[in-house]
UniProtKB/TrEMBL annotation, chain A:
Keywords: Thiamine pyrophosphate. It comes from the Bacteria. This is Transketolase. Residues 15-264 form the Transketolase N-terminal domain. Its cofactor is thiamine diphosphate. The keyword Cell membrane does not apply. CDD domains: TPP_TK (cd02012). Belongs to the transketolase family.
Amino acid sequence: MEALTDAEVRELEQRARAIRVTIVEMLAAAGSGHTAGPLGMADIFTALYFHVLKHDPKNPDWAERDRLILSNGHIVPVRYAAMAHAGYFSVEECLTLRKFGSRLQGHPERDMLPGLETTSGPLGSGLSESAGYAYAARMDGKDFRVFCAMSDGEHEEGNIWEAMMFAGKYRLANLVGIMDRNNIQIDGDTEDIMPLEPLRDKYEAFNWHVIEVDGHNIPQFIAACDEARAIHEKPTLILAHTIPGKGIREIEGDYRWHGNPPGKGPADKIPADKQAEVFLAELRTTTNN
Amino acid sequence: MINPDAKLAENMFDKPTMASTREGFGKGIVEAGTADERIVVLTADLAESTQAHHFQKAFPERFIQCGVAEQNMATVAAGMALYGKIPFFTSYATFSPGRNWEQIRTTIGINNVHAIVCGMHAGVSVGPDGATHQALEDMALMRTIPHFTVISACDSEEGRKATVAAAEFGSPVYMRWGRDKTPVMTTSETPFEIGKANVLWTPEVKPPKVAIFATGHLVYQALLAARQLEGEGIAVTVTNVHTVKPLDRETILREARAAGAVVTVEEHQIAGGFGSAIAELLAQECPLPVEFIGVHDKFGQSGEPTELVEHYGMGVSHIAAAVRKVSERKPV
């Protein structure tokens, strides 16, 4: 794939900023949900929906589309926001997040919204589903790719290691894992709760090809997706180092923002009733990086 | 007397053919796999004891060995079903759906994809392996998941037909299988339709005093009990309820109302299983006295299948005693 021009990179970064604004707006309207993860993954989801994925927002069931399976369903606001900006549905619909009757369930439900690929939330299962999907697609000689977005914390689940072993055994080269290595989980920092390192070595020991990237460097992430395409004998993991809450300085890296929406987060830096407003102002005035 | 419409095997009481229900799966899955290329079979290091090895031999390219990892197997199957394959995934019922229940609930149940969970080695009749390997809770686990259909075949032949039917069903199915060889009652002529219970025994003199509803291989014990009771002048009906969910309301209510008292028979905990499902239906539609044959809040243990079935109160004499007891409980 051709390298991105500076203008293209800037355009993607603008989109990522718009997606972050939508994430904050939808979470504030919902009054519940997760903030840090969706903001941290906004650059990657922008790159996926606006550059990497082969997909058609007007035809979500297109048989040849690349599949994006979201394993850690709780960061789905970033997916909804990216899908809305890509044209799957209106950005206004994002404000129905978590409301009764909404297609935008608190955790993604495949049956409710075209384009979600699967239902998820309980952690540790998405990589197995993706592996099964990739295995089945390869049986039929399909050439689309299966991407699986995962959190780091969910690597505390046994199921995911079973999936890594399975994908390594069957050399699922059409499978690309994307790990959001943001180092936080609900109760604290991952290395305090249950140390995960050395993650790269662990994946390599399970016969995966590993590429580490800065998860906020869109060209770097896109280059990793291209590189994965050239690896024919193994599945690839893109180990994306991200900053939870990216884009809002006051909350970046703070695990306490894992599971709280603006308006209900820790109030030691910004009073609760000002959080949404401050976040939106910051996103609208600062540059992406 | 045997209901002639059921077309049961003529030798069923004298010298019945013996086969395990899981053997029926082994045959049915090869048949289904021949008819439909989308069918794939997964196992978690139990190809032979689940009988999946027959499919493995016939269609090696559609057989997926997952290793001892039931959570992965269930979710790999979900992914394959999302793609458009029709996966049957096999292990012992204590592990699948025992260990991987949440994965099944979320990725197959909520997703509502056509994947078939095959839980082998159900019941104490697993025998010498003991309590850890004798699933007595699986129907309770599976009938509480929306979208799932639950099937427990009465013999090998019915198991074969059920497998072929499940392959064409289009939505999630749980199938329960036994390890031990048990009498084959049904024939290729016996009607089988998912969701449709079959009356196998009708009284010589009507009306019946008690309706027996049975599922799994204990249907045979229920028929033996019916034959014995008829000799004592106690008329009963025996209905084979292979589809535990959804229940065939029409047949069950018709038989229950005609008799006025019910005995349920299953090789499973009485809490939450087949008997509970029948009782839920009767409580709403026609409250009647019910006696439950099954395991009463205990774990199994090592032993021979027949002695364990007797020990846990699921033999012919227990069924007959339950019939006498429930008929005395009828309101005068």
